[in-house]
Design a protein that fits this description.
alpha+beta, Pnp Oxidase, Chain A, seven-stranded antiparallel beta sheet, three-stranded antiparallel beta sheet, 5 helices, 33% strand, binds flavin mononucleotide
Length: 217
């Protein structure tokens, strides 16, 4: 696979809408597959499937995600703006079909937990539930909603309050072996994949050749 063809943006502009969306959604790479749980003003829980999630920094612990325009995906964003809290829950193969179903546009007041059979798990002091079936999950408090006027999307930034996972997934140096939890990735609009561990490398320095470190967890 070395025969590169150049696809110009002008050519892409002439493509059918879904073809173009599939192509451009794939090109940025594998994305982490997660369910975001929130609660509305009436106390009804909500789950949305999100993959445009990115680590922003460890101190303070910040994570950002992209929310589509409000008309297309109103519930997660609205609930976060209202309540200020949400949980992010990794998806693994056993819950993939139910997680995918959470991308459907359910009406206001309908809980994707009830619709899909995923289970709310409430912990003391947190006003939003976790997804019980998720193996790696964390709770956040809203810091900032950044509108992106060019396309009507929002970049939502949250501060991590706590995380829940099996400690056996955490290495001596703090690295979490998320591949061992079978946390999935997404590509394009509708494709999902597994990740197999390959290698860990020591922090790179200009005057030293790259050096592997053991993968122990
Ligand atoms: C694989 C996959 C990944 C998705 N990632 C995102 C995302 O990162 N941001 C987003 O706004 N919508 C994303 N969606 C669409 C939402 O899941 C969908 O709009 C959902 O209905 C949002 O729910 P809400 O209105 O309850 O927030 C994704 C859908 C799929 C199938």
């Amino acid at each position: 696979m070395t025969d590169h063809k150049t696809y110009t943006i002008a050519e892409m502009g002439g493509w059918e809408r879904f073809y173009r969306a599939n192509f451009l959604n794939s090109i940025s790479g594998f994305k982490p597959l997660n369910l975001i749980a929130t609660v509305d003003a009436q106390g009804v829980s909500n789950l949305g499937l999100f993959s445009n999630i990115v680590h922003l920094g460890a101190d303070p612990a910040l994570v950002g995600f992209v929310n589509r325009p409000r008309e297309a995906a109103p519930h997660t964003l609205g609930n976060i703006e209202l309540g200020g809290f949400y949980t992010i829950n990794h998806v693994h193969p056993e819950i993939l079909a139910r997680a995918h179903q959470c991308s459907a546009k359910y009406p206001d007041g309908v809980s994707e937990f009830a619709e899909t059979g995923l289970t709310e798990e409430w912990v003391d002091g947190l006003p939003v539930p976790y997804v019980r079936e998720s193996l790696i999950r964390y709770a956040l408090e809203l810091v900032q909603v950044n509108p992106i006027p060019m396309n009507g999307t929002f970049f939502v930034i949250g501060r991590v309050l706590q995380a829940q996972l099996d400690p056996s997934l955490v290495s001596a140096d703090g690295f979490i072996d998320i591949s061992r939890a079978d946390s999935l990735v997404s590509t394009g609009l509708d494709a999902y994949g597994r990740v197999s561990a390959l290698a860990r490398y020591r922090y790179a320095k200009p005057d030293k050749a790259s050096e592997q470190i053991p993968w122990v967890s």
